[in-house]
């Protein structure tokens, strides 16, 4: 995953992030969001990073089966006030965090590394050893 949480993240920050991740996965899994860019799209919430004051959250998402993530992020941004209200109904927090949706590039990075490892130059070097 993105592992952008600092080592000194509070347990509360981590717990809230996980609660948000599960709640957002449930909301997005219903596929009831009214936005043309989100119709028929399965979205996976891979990670949630909460700010130390819990007022902001970075939501890392990817599209099941790949596809245009720019459109998905734009669609989620358009409906984020609705999503935020749904989160507020399900999770009891003093402040419902501001949601910022970002593409999770982890799978792209893994593919890139696999392609590099399978490139003729690397395979040639590995055979020499």
Which properties best describe this structure?
129 residues, 3-stranded mixed β-sheet, GMP Synthetase, Chain A, domain 3, alpha+beta, flat
Give a written overview of the molecule.
The two termini are 32 Å apart. The chain has one domain: GMP Synthetase, Chain A, domain 3 (2-Layer Sandwich). Helix 1 crosses helix 3. The radius of gyration is 18 Å and the shape is flat. The longest helix is centred in the N-terminal third of the chain and has 19 residues. It has five helices and three strands; from the N terminus they run H-E-E-H-H-E-H-H. It is 47% helix and 17% strand. The protein is α+β, with helices and mostly antiparallel strands. The chain has a three-stranded mixed β-sheet with strand order 1-2-3. The model has no long low-confidence stretch (mean pLDDT 86). Strand 1 and strand 2 form a beta hairpin.
Helix-strand layout with pairing:
Blueprint: H1 11-29, E1 43-50, E2 56-63, H2 69-78, H3 80-90, E3 98-103, H4 106-117, H5 120-128
Parallel strand pairs: 2-3
Antiparallel strand pairs: 1-2
Helix pairs in contact: 1-3
């Amino acid at each position: 995953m993105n592992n952008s949480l600092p080592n000194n993240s509070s347990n509360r920050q981590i717990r809230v992030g996980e609660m948000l991740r599960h709640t957002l996965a449930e909301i997005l899994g219903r596929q009831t969001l009214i936005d043309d860019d989100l119709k028929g799209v399965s979205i996976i919430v891979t990670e949630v990073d909460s700010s130390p004051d819990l007022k902001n959250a970075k939501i890392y998402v990817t599209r099941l089966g790949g596809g245009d993530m720019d459109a998905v992020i734009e669609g989620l941004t358009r409906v984020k006030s609705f999503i935020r209200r749904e989160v507020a109904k399900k999770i009891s927090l003093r402040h419902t965090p501001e949601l910022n949706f970002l593409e999770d590039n982890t799978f792209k990075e893994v593919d890139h590394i696999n392609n590099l490892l399978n490139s003729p130059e690397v395979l040639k070097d590995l055979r020499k050893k």
